[in-house]
Amino acid sequence: MEIQSDRVRFVLNPFHVRPVPPVLLPPEPSDVAAFHRSLPGYAPTPLVAL
Q1: Which helix (H) or strand (E) holds 35?
Q2: φ, ψ (nearest 5 deg) of residue 24
Q3: What is the mean pLDDT of each run of 10 residues along the chain (50 residues)?
Q4: CA distances from 44 to 10, 26, 33, 41, 47 (A)
Q5: Residue 1 near residue 13 (C-beta atoms within 8 A)
Q6: Structural contact between residues 35 and 28, judged by C-beta atoms closer than 8 angstroms
Q7: pLDDT above 90 covers what percent of the chain?
Q8: What distance in Å separates the CA atoms of residue 12 and residue 3, rounded to the nearest whole number?
Q9: What local confidence, expressed as pLDDT, does residue 15 receive?
């Protein structure tokens, strides 16, 4: 929807009020860890005291 006036011209973003589809959202943190564990040869980096 485009709105015009003497001073300002702008277009409303139709996606602003719509929810973001879940496929476009970043994965949940637990999914990220599960993905890395599924990689061959993956091992978490050990923590060491400084």
Answers
A1: helix 29-38
A2: -95, -5
A3: 70 78 82 88 92
A4: 50, 21, 10, 10, 9
A5: no
A6: no
A7: 20
A8: 8
A9: 74
